[in-house]
């Protein structure tokens, strides 16, 4: 069954002068206008399209990629306002409406806003709201430590960056965990759950808990190990001269780097060699 507000894979069933009609099941035949039709599309081919309502409330298909789908958050720019609401650029030909009742403050053209996309129950239109807390929770109790998650940077606070996690809850990346990241509002990226507190609130990190980020030397050691089938007859017991020759660093720097790799469980150590942990 074809669904509005998400991507669907539909079959092309007939061609007309102004495009192709796709089989939308219960939604009926759905037009894919010529400007979105790939040159090699044939009858009975399947194609991935995004569905939404046009200005005449007809379900229409597009191969364009919107900046957000149904039940997702996004940071979008307001491009127009009129007597019924504001309109945001979400990457499609038809702008996304935010009714005045769904604005926290009057939106202005040229400004960007955090919104959530939902399906209006009355007219079945994809609509946006700036009142995102109606759809987001403060509790991420279903998440686990070290779980990889999708983030949208939503707000800058005194403690750090408040982020939307997996489009369903809030999480926090403290400034101490976001060093050198130069985060900006609206940015989408991957991160890890650092911890889930007793009240369900989520702390986030860009490294797995207990894993250290690797410096250039540690990365170099890994690369050399991989080029040598995961094994090298060199260790922290080797001479400073040999370490300098192979890795171009001091013995102290070498020991710090392999200590980080060992703590991250990426290498195995013995008195005479190092090897990749998965070898």
UniProtKB/TrEMBL annotation:
GO MF term set: nucleic acid binding
Secretion signal span: none
Location of the S1 motif domain: 3-64, 144-207
Pfam families tied to this protein: S1_2 (PF13509), WHD_CvfB (PF17783)
InterPro entries the UniProt entry points to: CvfB_fam, CvfB_S1_st, CvfB_WH, NA-bd_OB-fold, S1_domain, WH-like_DNA-bd_sf
PANTHER family: CONSERVED VIRULENCE FACTOR B
Annotated family: Belongs to the CvfB family.
Protein name (database record): GntR family transcriptional regulator
Annotated source species: Saccharobesus litoralis
